[in-house]
């Protein structure tokens, strides 16, 4: 929201608090149907260290902020019509929410909502200890303003179809950080650590009509949705030579828009007391177009400098999804459910571009390219499940899910009417997933639950034609196996203490088969995670509660490194503690203490052979809230917060210590 | 063990207290302050009660059958849900995974004749009841990078349907691939001339949707993320991908952070997803 609009909004709300509020409060003394609850707030945050990282971590910026943390107004009129209004306004955080609803049960409603919030991004790139400086930042206040506006009206008359007509406008605007870092050369090393960012302006407009009705035992729901999506993005990447001070920038501008029509029809019926049936159909028809413009500055004689321009990008996509599901309980304590879903998606894409590029030993060339792709994808998924609850205090369940997918892919690029590459690949994918689970409470106050899941995915690629050697036809097949175990025990130790322990194990192995003679395969991926958590909730006194959650994650992921020292396993140990205490100190005073501790240790220091990735950082977040009722209708609130980020591995550029102070009032007229 | 030598001065008893306070670490000071308030608080008579988030203060459980008396449709949907599988019938509120596990105890809601927000918790506005059981998800939302549930910008029901099947796009409900993520991330999930095949398997192949210790919610922030699938056999000491040696390039950065395969979701101009 621009500053003029923001100022206007603030003025409106100030007027509302100081003029309308007291007036309505006066009225409220005579009118019990009116509820009015504004909560003004003033905040101050101070940061010592990386302010951008603080903003990204805690979704707030340093300095003063204030407004209405919450406000609501409720009025029931004659004839039982209900008028509700509420929201939030915090500036300069660009944090707004405004809701308005007017309606009557069994007649209809009119609703509107505007909301906006800001997401911040740190502008620091990577880290390399052999460079000076060891890391770079853009010195930009990177943030996105994300919001939506919704207006909908509905008719809810009894015995008639429920009809809702709505309009939505969603937006994202601003700048965000990217992980595509620019190269920095210093001495014998080139490492990509220079930060980059993207400007973006996205708008989505949706018009929808929803109709639902019940006839006899059949419930029908249809949603017709038309959307127009528009996106303008601009990416900036820069490379630096620390020795010569030379730099080169690459700017990629993309625009895209599409119109899409989506219709979802859903029918369901509880045919008998034990048989449930549902049927659905989804249609999605999308037509999109866009442009692409890449500029290298300065565009020089260096090989591979590119100025690519595509004024015409056309995309069409059509999807159909059809599903049928049923659940039956033919015997007491036994329930069976099954479903089948078929889908078909056809996507066509065409780009016309001029690809100006400096070729080694040749110089700049500007071929005209026509690039096309065509993808036909069809899939079938079947589900069958069983639930048994015949054992006292126990529920057992099992489910199988099988998917078959076929993808026919054609990709072709012609440069100056000559085929530069052409690929024709038929892919077949088979997936299966089996789940066994239980939930039992063998003795009062003690519950165990868990599940075991085993999944496989087999992909076969039949490369009928690939004129470009190597990519991407080098993979012939891939097999993926996943195992997942989840076990949980919950004990209500006493009426005041509840504790639960949970263990999760996830393992994924991937084998990749190559196009060699003879065919060969390697275990290309191996991922394992063990996750433990213990949580306790205690209410030792009616006026006191304590909650604590401790979690430890041990993650290891390896890929096929073929003895290359730049590659190593990804290992992470993550420790988290979240504690809360709430306390009614007296008749008028409440205290709430919250503490977050998070240590993420996944530092890989390998500067000679590769990047220094990962980090070993400790974050603390502490807040103490104190609220006191001043009068019957007014409460005062004070909050102090302390936040700290301490990097122990890859430099200290993102370290900070921050303090937060909040004072607020809550009126309840 | 390190002992703290405290100043003592018989003429100034306050010096001992000041010295003690100064020598204490901040956490011990905070603990002492809290204990002091506790002593004062407990000596002051009060009949107030306080409840952790996710519970209705002063209410008692009424059981699922009572809820189903009015909320017939929700009860029927619940039977088709992933949550419904864990339901164990019981007596007098001792049910496991029933309505009140998420909506709070219902006795006060029943007493006032029901109604929206009347002594009942709505997890679509407050994710606390979900996070009571899904402890690991609570942890994920408190990691360095996360979807803004802790910040109250999103709630669980933006992506999950607790009464129906757990993913909006699946099972009894229906949608397209990545339909849940597509609600907000249109730019990443829109059609492209060249699409990263991983996207056809779903966004969660590379991203952890609740939270991650890696930026952009990535599962791993190094080349392991890509090389698990993009591996090729070659002579030891070299990394060949698509018959092209990436050995020196991988030392400079990861596949996407080195500024090479930057159009990682898909490209309209380059089949190698380079721009």
Protein architecture, described:
The complex is a heterodimer of chains A (669) and B (275). Chain A is mainly beta and 669 residues long. Chain A has helices spanning 3-30, 51-58, and strands at residues 34-49, 63-76, 82-91, 95-104, 108-121, 142-155, 162-186, 189-215, 218-241, 247-270, 275-297, 306-328, 334-359, 363-365, 368-388, 394-415, 418-443, 446-466, 475-494, 497-514, 520-541, 544-559, 570-584, 589-601, 616-631, 634-647, 656-667. Chain A has a 27-stranded mixed sheet that branches. The radius of gyration of chain A is 30 Å and the shape is globular. Chain B has helices at residues 13-23, 26-43, 64-70, 72-79, 99-103, 107-111, 128-133, 135-140, 179-182, 186-189, 197-201, 224-227, 247-252, and strands at residues 145-146, 194-195, 211-212, 240-241, 244-245, 266-267. In chain B, the strands form three sheets. In chain B, strands 1-3 form a two-stranded antiparallel ribbon. A two-stranded antiparallel sheet of chain B has the order 2-6. Among the domains of chain B are: 64-121, no CATH class; 190-267, no CATH class. By secondary structure, chain B is mainly alpha-helical. The chains are: A mainly beta (669), B mainly alpha (275).
């Amino acid at each position: 929201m621009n500053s003029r609009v923001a100022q206007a909004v603030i003025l409106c709300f100030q007027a509302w608090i100081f003029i309308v509020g007291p007036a309505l409060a006066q009225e409220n003394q005579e009118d019990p149907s009116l509820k009015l609850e504004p909560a003004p707030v003033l905040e101050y945050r101070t940061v010592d260290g990386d302010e951008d990282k603080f903003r990204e971590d805690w979704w707030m910026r340093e300095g003063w902020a204030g407004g209405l943390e919450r406000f609501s107004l409720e009025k029931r009129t004659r004839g039982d019509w209900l008028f509700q209004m509420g929201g939030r306004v915090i500036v300069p955080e660009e944090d707004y929410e405004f809701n308005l609803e007017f309606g009557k049960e069994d007649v209809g409603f009119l609703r509107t909502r505007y909301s906006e919030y800001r997401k911040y991004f740190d502008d620091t790139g990577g880290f390399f200890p052999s460079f000076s400086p060891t890391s770079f930042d853009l010195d930009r206040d990177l943030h996105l303003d994300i919001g939506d506006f919704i207006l909908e009206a509905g008719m809810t008359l009894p015995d008639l179809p429920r009809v809702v007509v709505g309009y939505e406008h969603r937006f994202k605007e601003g700048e965000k950080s990217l992980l595509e870092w620019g190269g920095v050369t210093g001495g014998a090393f080139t490492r990509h650590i220079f930060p980059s960012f993207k400007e973006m302006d996205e708008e989505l407009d949706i018009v929808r009509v929803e109709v639902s009705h019940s006839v006899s035992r059949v419930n029908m729901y249809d949603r017709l949705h038309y959307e127009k999506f528009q996106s303008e993005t601009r990416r900036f990447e820069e490379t630096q030579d620390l020795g010569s001070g030379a730099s080169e920038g690459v700017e990629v501008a993309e625009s895209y828009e599409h119109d899409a029509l989506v219709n979802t029809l859903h029918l369901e019926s509880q045919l008998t007391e034990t048989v449930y049936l549902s049927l659905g159909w989804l249609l999605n028809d999308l037509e999109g177009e866009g442009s692409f413009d890449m500029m290298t500055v300065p565009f020089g004689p260096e090989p591979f400098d590119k100025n690519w321009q595509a004024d015409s990008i056309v995309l069409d996509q059509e999807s159909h999804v059809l599903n049928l599901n049923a659940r039956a309980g033919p015997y007491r304590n036994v329930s069976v459910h099954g479903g089948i879903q078929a889908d078909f998606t056809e996507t066509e894409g065409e780009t016309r571009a001029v690809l100006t590029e400096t070729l080694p030993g040749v110089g700049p060339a500007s071929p005209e390219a026509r690039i096309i792709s065509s993808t036909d994808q069809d899939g079938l998924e079947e589900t069958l499940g069983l639930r048994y609850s015949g054992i006292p205090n126990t529920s057992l369940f099992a489910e199988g899910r099988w998917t078959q997918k076929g993808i026919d892919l054609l990709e072709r690029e012609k440069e100056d009417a000559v085929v530069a590459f052409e690929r024709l690949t038929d892919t077949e994918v088979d997936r299966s997933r089996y789940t066994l689970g239980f939930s039992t409470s063998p003795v009062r106050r003690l519950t165990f639950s868990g599940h075991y899941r085993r999944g496989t995915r087999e992909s076969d690629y039949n490369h009928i034609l690939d004129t470009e050697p190597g990519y991407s036809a080098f993979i012939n097949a891939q097999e993926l196996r996943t195992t997942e175990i989840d076990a949980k025990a919950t004990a209500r130790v006493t009426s005041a203490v509840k504790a639960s322990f949970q263990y999760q194990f996830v393992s994924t192995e991937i084998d990749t088969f190559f196009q060699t003679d003879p065919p060969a395969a390697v275990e290309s991926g191996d991922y394992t995670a063990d996750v433990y958590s213990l949580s306790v909730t205690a209410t030792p006194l009616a006026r006191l509660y304590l909650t604590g959650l401790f979690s430890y994650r041990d993650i290891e992921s390896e890929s096929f490194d073929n003895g290359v020292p730049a590659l190593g396993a990804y290992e992470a140990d993550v420790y988290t503690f979240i504690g809360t205490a709430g306390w009614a100190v007296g008749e008028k005073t409440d205290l709430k203490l919250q503490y977050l501790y998070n240590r993420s240790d996944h530092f890989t220091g390998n500067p000679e052979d590769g990047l220094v990735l990962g980090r070993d950082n400790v974050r603390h977040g502490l807040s103490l809230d104190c609220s006191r009722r001043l009068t019957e209708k007014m409460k005062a609130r004070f909050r102090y917060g302390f936040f700290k980020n301490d990097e122990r591995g890859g430099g200290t550029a993102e370290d900070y210590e921050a303090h937060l102070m909040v004072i607020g009032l809550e009126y309840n007229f | 063990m390190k002992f703290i030598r405290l100043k003592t001065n018989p003429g100034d008893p306050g010096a001992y207290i000041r010295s003690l306070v100064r020598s204490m670490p901040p956490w011990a000071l905070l603990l002492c302050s809290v204990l002091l308030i506790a002593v004062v608080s407990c000596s002051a008579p009060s009949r107030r009660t306080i409840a952790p988030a996710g519970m209705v203060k002063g209410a008692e459980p009424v059981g699922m059958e009572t809820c189903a008396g009015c909320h017939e449709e929700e009860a029927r949907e619940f039977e088709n849900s992933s949550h419904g599988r864990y339901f164990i019938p019981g007596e007098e509120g001792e049910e496991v995974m029933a309505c009140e596990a998420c909506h709070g105890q219902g006795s006060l809601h029943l007493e006032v004749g029901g109604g929206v927000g009347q002594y009942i918790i709505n997890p679509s506005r407050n994710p606390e009841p979900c996070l009571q059981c899904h402890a690991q998800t609570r942890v994920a939302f408190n990691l360095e990078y996360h979807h803004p549930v802790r910040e109250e910008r999103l709630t669980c029901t933006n992506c999950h349907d607790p009464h129906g099947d757990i993913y909006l796009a699946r099972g009894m409900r229906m949608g397209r691939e990545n339909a849940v993520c597509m609600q907000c991330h249109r730019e990443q999930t829109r059609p492209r001339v060249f699409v990263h095949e991983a996207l056809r398997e779903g966004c969660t192949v590379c991203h952890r949707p609740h939270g991650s210790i890696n930026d952009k919610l990535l599962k791993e922030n190094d080349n392991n993320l890509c090389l698990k699938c993009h591996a090729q056999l070659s002579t030891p000491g070299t990394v060949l991908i698509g018959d092209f040696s990436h050995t020196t390039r991988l030392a400079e950065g990861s596949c996407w952070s080195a500024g090479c395969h930057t159009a990682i979701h898909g490209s309209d101009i380059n089949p190698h997803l380079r721009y």
